[in-house]
């Protein structure tokens, strides 16, 4: 009798363990199964600086809903100051995260997030904890800290495109945060590994606060789009742009932070660009239309992606 009892207990434990493993793998594949469509395209929407706070601005959420319905992206990225922690306590911050997640979750659109300087400002949630809360959402494909997202080929196996999501921090050295040396090292190590495994799949990198090189490019090069304010850049330069130029996988860097800019330009063959301010509670010049940036990547030539601004006033 004892042997039968122990056999049943062991059998039950094994079954539960197997179930947990299968659920874990299911969640892994659910969060990893991004791939080019059968027609060879992949579309990304970048929302930035939504600045949701304790008094939710329904116009911001409606903008997100309407742009998603019209563009039907394969992935959405939120590039910081998604909520404004200056005006949120803990419970209000949790509600803001729920509000900004809902447009993608309702439509079952994969999405990812990185943080800005205001997200965790006085809201009682640290950056790692906030990223954990985001990653618990069903269709969020992000991770805690810096991470990359692979976009698989439309047919067969292998990665055709890659996305880096970096945390540019909040405040440091009397100014804004910056990507530090450890993060640069993480990028170099990850890029080398991806280069070996995925045979030089091109990439885009997203974070919130512009690199110091943005000031150089806007003054020395032709910009396409709106340039309405001086760039508020990272307070230190740990060499991220130099690392990008060395590895040659990242074809474009896109940020938020400066609400009145949406320009793109090019430095040493790398596009440096902004998203379009999304939130109606974010500062801006008078009559500055809100919107998003759209990316269309073609599997046959992913290095030459197309990108444009979608203004909310132009929604059909």
Model description:
It is a single chain. The chain has helices spanning 2-32, 58-71, 90-107, 127-135, 181-198, 213-220, 240-247; strands at residues 41-47, 75-79, 111-114, 147-152, 159-165, 171-172, 175-176, 203-206, 250-255, 264-267, 270-274, 291-298, 306-311. The chain is of the alpha/beta class and 316 residues long. The strands form three sheets. A six-stranded mixed sheet has the order 4-5-8-9-11-10, with helices on one face. The protein has a five-stranded mixed sheet with strand order 3-2-1-12-13. Strands 6-7 form a two-stranded antiparallel sheet. The radius of gyration is 21 Å and the shape is globular. Residues 15-30 have low confidence and may be disordered.
Q: What's the mean pLDDT score?
A: 91
Structural class: alpha/beta
- From the alpha carbons, calculate the radius of gyration and give it in angstroms: 21 Å
Task: Name the strands of the widest sheet in spatial order.
Answer: 4-5-8-9-11-10
Total count of helical runs of at least 4 residues: 7
Parts with pLDDT < 50 across at least 5 consecutive residues = 15-30
Note the gap between the termini: 73 Å
> Helical amount among residues, as a percent range?
25-40%
Tell me the number of strands: 13
**What best-fitting shape do the alpha-carbon axes yield?**
globular
Largest sheet: 6 strands, mixed
Q: What is the string of SSEs from the N terminus onward?
A: HEHEHEHEEEEHEHHEEEEE
Assess the beta-strand content as a share of residues: 15-25%
């Amino acid at each position: 009798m004892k042997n039968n009892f122990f056999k049943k207990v062991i059998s039950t434990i094994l079954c539960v363990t197997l179930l947990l493993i299968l659920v874990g793998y299911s969640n892994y594949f659910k969060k990893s199964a991004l791939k080019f469509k059968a027609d060879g395209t992949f579309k990304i929407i970048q929302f930035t600086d939504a600045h949701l706070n304790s008094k939710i601005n329904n116009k911001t959420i409606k903008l997100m809903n309407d742009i998603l319905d019209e563009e039907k992206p394969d992935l959405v990225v939120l590039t910081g100051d998604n909520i404004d922690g200056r005006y949120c306590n803990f419970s209000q911050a949790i509600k803001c995260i729920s509000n900004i997640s809902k447009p993608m979750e309702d439509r079952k659109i994969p999405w990812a997030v990185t943080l800005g300087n205001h997200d965790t400002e006085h809201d009682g949630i640290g950056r790692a904890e906030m990223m954990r809360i985001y990653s618990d959402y069903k269709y969020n494909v992000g991770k805690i800290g810096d991470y990359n997202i692979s976009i698989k080929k439309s047919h067969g196996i292998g990665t055709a495109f890659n996305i880096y999501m970096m945390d540019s921090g909040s405040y440091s050295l009397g100014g804004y945060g910056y990507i530090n040396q450890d993060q640069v090292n993480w990028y170099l190590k990850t890029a080398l590994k991806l280069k070996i495994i995925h045979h030089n799949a091109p990439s885009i990198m997203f974070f919130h606060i512009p690199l110091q090189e943005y000031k150089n490019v806007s003054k020395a090069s032709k910009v396409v789009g709106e340039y309405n304010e001086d760039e508020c850049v990272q307070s230190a330069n740990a060499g991220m742009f130099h690392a990008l130029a060395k590895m040659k996988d990242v074809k474009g860097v896109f940020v938020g932070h400066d609400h009145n800019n949406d320009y793109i330009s090019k430095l040493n063959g790398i596009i440096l660009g902004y998203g379009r301010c999304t939130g109606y509670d974010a500062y801006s010049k008078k009559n500055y239309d809100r919107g998003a940036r759209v990316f269309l990547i073609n599997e046959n030539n992913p290095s030459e992606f197309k990108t444009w601004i979608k203004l909310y006033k132009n929604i059909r």
